[in-house]
Amino acid sequence: MQIKSITSALEAWAPLSFQESYDNSGLIMGDPLMECTGILCSLDCTEAVIDEAIEKGCNLIISHHPIVFKGIKQFIPDHYVTRIALKAIKNKIALYAIHTNLDNILDGVNKSIADKLHLENRQILDSKPGILDPKGGAVGSGLIGELPLETDEQDFIKWVKEKLHVEVIKHTPFTGKQLKTIALCGGSGSFLIASAKEQKADCFITSDLKYHDYFEPDGKFLLLDIGHGESEQFVPALIVAYLTGKFPTFAVLESRVNTQPVRYLK
């Protein structure tokens, strides 16, 4: 099977036209006509992931984050991005990224968090007018849904830590309210705080919040920062599940490499 057959399946799920203007999703390097020997799915593409692909005989790496995000003027091994690119080219490994286009569909990145938290009645938090997904649903940023039962704020944070395997959660002061409606955005989601407020969310879960972002809820809802990598850690498994459903006899593997660069000192 050629690599283009796999990328076409991915783009039927999360069309490249759904990515944000600043993004670099799609086939970043490699020949789409090359026969695929195996697929390795990861959150990021690092040198360790390239080594794993070589070891496992995979010549296609599908990562959530694009390894090439900004312009590259020199291909010399003095930076981790060019070093990884050179290693992939040398070993004839194709690199594909499925980033904000996967963020912007209901059964994409945010589904992987919503599933863990058992959210019901899910909708796109901030939809793009006039754009529909392949199933006719809304396209846009974030997700909003409901917990099966109203939950105390402290109990909910404990639930999030347990279900998402999160070591540290930064949050705004407790509101004293019971939580039912939960908004979320995997990755950096501060731009959706206003949408969470408009949709009357009781809690908004995201990452990469700055100091002044914590003032925005103004006591009306709880704001949680669970960490960027932590919020997207389940994306590789999501991609594996999708591709395995499309190509049940083909080798689709989830990377065993922990690519998250952030560590916490306890």
Descriptive notes:
This protein is α/β, with parallel strands linked by helices and about 270 residues long. The protein folds into two domains: about 100 residues, 3-Layer(aba) Sandwich (Udp-n-acetylmuramoylalanyl-d-glutamate--2,6- Diaminopimelate Ligase, Chain: A, domain 1); about 130 residues, NIF3 (NGG1p interacting factor 3)-like (Udp-n-acetylmuramoylalanyl-d-glutamate--2,6- Diaminopimelate Ligase, Chain: A, domain 1, 3-Layer(aba) Sandwich), CATH 3.40.1390. Helix content is about 30%, strand content about 25%. It contains nine helices and eleven strands. The strands form two sheets. Strands 5-6-8-9-10-7 form a six-stranded mixed beta sheet. A five-stranded mixed beta sheet has the order 1-4-3-2-11, sandwiched between helices. Helix 2 links the parallel strand 2 and strand 3. The chain is globular and about 55 Å long. About 40% of the residues are buried.
